[in-house]
Amino acid sequence: MKEVRNKWLELVIVLSAPLLSVIDVFIINVAIPAIKKGVQASDAEIQLVIAGYLLGYAAFLITGGRAGDHFGRKKVFFLGMLAFTIASCLCGLSQSAFQLNITRFFQGLSASFMMPQTIAFIQVLFTDTKERAKAFGLYGITLGSAAVIGQVLGGYLADTHWAIEGWRLIFFINLPIGILTLWATHRYVTETPRHQNTKFDYTGVMILTLGLFCLIYPLIEGREAGWPLWSIGLIALSFGIFSLFIFNQKKKLASGGNPLIDVRLFKIKDFNIGLVAVLFHFMLHTAYLLLSAVYLQNGLGVSALDCGLYFMVPGILFVVSSLVASRTIVRFGKRVLQVGIVVLAAAFYLQVVLWRPGVGAGLIIGLMGLWGLGNGLVLPSLLNIALKNVPAQYAGAAAGVYTTFQQTASALGISIIGGIFFYRSAQGWQAAYHAGVMGLLVCAALVAIMLYLLPGRKAQHTLPAQDAKVSGDQPAPAVKAADELMPAD
Q1: Domains of the chain by start residue, with CATH
Q2: How does DSSP classify residue 415?
């Protein structure tokens, strides 16, 4: 019993990483007007408050995951949490938009080192399939709840006037949580086995980081600047850099080296389909929270505080449906997620039809609650689907790939769907919201297609062991069959 209790306690501690890192993505949405006034920022500078965090976050996630494999997951988690806490305080102390954007970038960068360790710890600690499904469910609940908590806190703190400006509390709130987590990590979390006698792939880190920067930065900033030539050029360049990265990783793998990413991961069909589903779902998830926060305030005349409070009910319903999903996913498999996507699509459609100026608070909360119910059936279980066939020794690399897709999807959702929304705002906020929701429905349809393509009970998936060893260890064993973790669909 002691081992089980310690195992779940460690999970609770490391779940602080997704909790804090995701809260700090969404806590900005409702508080943007207060922050803009507080640091006297321009529209472009205030966009970077969100974009800079996502850029630092997404660009180093794979590096953070592999750093945990190489240097020790507890060590990297502890140092990442320490850096995140310090960067959060520096954000709160910022006196100008430039200072805030620089510190937000480093806040996102530090989050990229602590976040993948949570997934890696789950992979290592929970070898029993039912326990792992529950652990991944708790991780997904944390992600979705953190997004809603961020919206609520942003609205509340933006309207709060204490000894300091309320928007600064948005960042200082991380200080007590960070200190408590650092103490608990030192006291209760045990180190996981490291990959010994191997070299860290610094070349791979540099190539991948450069490629992600060339993709993410113009996607975020290009729309605001009217898609100038430099933005198109950087996006095109990123694909060339990614090709170079894949060539570099294959070469190192073939020569028995220690690549940043073991490309054999992408031979697992479930992993690939799961990643695409993750991409489109997090695009719609992140974009919806931004679109709804802006539309409620600017289109429907809801105050920042009330806007934040409106997210409480969908947040509670999200947790309820997430718990239901974590219990039913083992029995019903991907059908749980398919039901959730249908509920999500219905919520989006009804919001377009029924949300009008003068609409009652009950109808707003009811339709947002429907969104929370559907999202809770989908988001927590996507992680389990994407990683269910990944061997334990690939945990850090797979976690880094997953979270990179997740955060890149967030950036894409804000830049593409958010871009459509703000572009159409010149024709009125209602027209803008309708256009944005169309983008959300397209993403939902693509997630539904990916879920349909997910295999049911099929032959075992294996990774070819002859190519190379995994980070200097023994060749990877055959990956568990999909039906050991999920029933036939």
Answers
A1: 2-456+468-484 (1.20.1250.20)
A2: I
